[in-house]
Specification:
Layout: E1 2-9, E2 22-29, E3 37-45, H1 49-53, E4 67-74, E5 84-87, E6 94-97, E7 103-104, H2 124-136, E8 144-147, H3 155-164, E9 168-173, H4 176-184, E10 189-192, H5 199-206, E11 211-216, H6 220-227, E12 230-238, H7 257-262, E13 266-269, H8 277-292, E14 300-304, H9 309-316, E15 324-328
Parallel strand pairs: 8-9, 8-11, 9-10, 11-12, 12-13, 14-15
Antiparallel strand pairs: 1-2, 3-4, 3-6, 3-15, 4-5, 5-7
Helix pairs in contact: 2-3, 2-8
């Protein structure tokens, strides 16, 4: 028998998640049936969206999320033992799957790249950057792009893709270390929003003529200021709102209706899972190619040990990660 360790939601979050909100459990998995496979997790992802999605869980349910896993036993010919997959198995060390929702890592994946990138730059965050920039913002060469949380898993890819396409890119982040990383990897301007005297003035100085595209990862007061800096007919891709996920009181007021109306702005929220099949595979191949060629740089914030999943997750909301937050099993 195989025993799996699982992190469950002990009680719903109030404000910033705490370690006491989680409970580690051990469960015994049944023998495989025909068509099933046994997965052993190699890497886990922690992402801000989990803070919102956890509202849909009942207390005692396992936390959701993707992992890179290896098939360790198989009764499914499509997934022989040793196959590496990305699986939506949640916060568990082992799981049983019928193969339906699994995605094999790209066949051309080079040995020189860590498999954990399938949870980051060549995975869901990279795809979010790719489709948000191309399909939602419709970015074109020569335009000016603003990226918030630019040193995060999504923002860092957004900025680098925009540079590949010939854009001017301004990124904001919350520490001098993150700002230095952005400058090192091609951002034209990088701003520490926590230390500038005036965010509005800093954004104006960075792009006096305004911004064609704003890739919004933070929401809240930051985005209210950023939206006033848009050019006429500017496009805003609303990817996330991490600045307000842990609020317990009323949300801050939204952006000025006058600005949106008279600048004729286009604001659109989106979730990356709408893009599937061929377009998704093409995007993954593009991302893998750019990373392999060194055109997109990546940084992983790796936490060792499954027992530290809650701490890695909580760290997201404290700004501890530069790049993609990963937990190594």
């Amino acid at each position: 028998m195989v025993h799996a360790k699982r992190w469950t939601l002990k009680k719903h979050f109030v404000g910033l998640p705490t370690n006491s909100d989680f409970e580690l459990k051990k469960v015994e998995l049944p023998p495989l049936k025909d068509g099933e496979i046994l997965l052993e997790a190699l890497y886990f992802t922690v992402d801000p969206y989990m803070r919102i999605m956890a509202k849909s869980l009942k207390e005692g349910d396992m936390m959701m999320g993707e992992q890179v896993a290896r098939v360790v036993e198989s009764k499914n010919s499509a997934f022989p033992t040793g196959t590496i997959v990305v699986a939506p198995s949640g916060w568990t060390t082992h799981s049983i799957s019928d193969g339906e929702k699994l995605e094999k890592v790209l066949a051309e994946w080079p040995d020189t790249l860590p498999l954990s990138l399938a949870l980051g730059t060549v995975g869901m965050p990279g795809l979010t950057a790719y489709f948000g920039l191309f399909d939602i913002c419709g970015v074109k060469g020569g335009e000016t792009v603003l990226v918030s949380a630019a040193a995060g898993a999504v923002g860092s890819v957004v900025g680098q893709i925009a540079k590949l396409k010939g854009c001017k890119v301004v990124g904001t982040a919350g520490s001098d270390e993150k700002v230095a990383w952005l400058k090192k990897h091609g951002f034209d301007v990088a701003i520490n929003y926590k230390t500038v005297k005036s965010l509005e003035e800093a954004l104006k100085v960075a792009a006096p003529e305004g911004y064609d595209c704003y890739f919004d990862n933070v929401g809240g007061e930051f985005s209210n200021v950023a939206i006033t800096q848009m050019k006429k007919f500017g496009r805003i891709a609303i990817c996330g709102a991490i600045s307000v996920y842990n609020r317990t009181g009323p949300l801050p007021p939204g952006p000025s209706p006058e600005v949106i109306i008279f600048k004729e702005l286009h604001l659109q929220g989106f979730v990356v899972y709408r893009w599937q099949k061929e377009v998704r595979q093409k995007a993954l191949r593009d991302l893998l190619k750019w990373v392999s060629e060194g055109k997109i740089q990546y940084h992983e914030h790796v936490t060792e040990g499954f027992e530290h999943m809650p701490a890695a997750f909580i760290g997201l909301f404290k700004g501890e990660n530069l790049g993609k937050a990963i937990v190594k099993a």
